[in-house]
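Researcher: Next entry in the queue.
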Amino acid sequence: MAYAVKEIFATLQGEGAHSGRASVFCRFAGCNLWSGREADRAEAVCRFCDTDFVGGERFADAETLAEAIARCWRGGPAQRYVVITGGEPLLQVDAPLIEALHRRDFTIAVETNGTIEAPAGIDWICVSPKAGAAFRQRQGHELKLVFPQDALDPASFETCDFRHFFLQPMDGPDRARNTEATVAYCLAHPHWRLSVQTHKMIGIP
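Model: Structure for this entry, 205 residues:
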């Protein structure tokens, strides 16, 4: 299988339970909730995406992609950590890629919108549900809900099987107001913890 990848880069994880952890990010091209084209944003299921996932490079097979990811790792052989994201990465992530990364001693994390069930073998699953979209991946390690979203009540997710529950203020022109609302919600509902995009604050990818 060939893989369409927007970019691969070394950085620190900026969000959630692994915030601050050295990582290689592999951002897949394509999403099932938005084309990535500004002309289509108004009609998209997810209209607030802040990520460019259009274009990039094609990798012919899992070994070639896994090797490209391994070349980006800046640390030693231990604690290798890759974050597979998008777009929607589960449109492409499959068993051969998971096996190829594990052979290179990577712990594999995925960031998904939850509309597609994750294949076996992924070590850390972060699900970020979107209003108006199917919600099929109902278990994992962290649920990260961008807040607020119309018609999406955080309480409706509290019975799902996740280790961590994060609310993340929606970015954009109303970020300050959204942050205030998220803090207030977490104070009133301690089932949830605040997640902030620290990479944006310190100016790293």
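Model: The chain has a mean pLDDT of 97.
Researcher: Noted, moving on.
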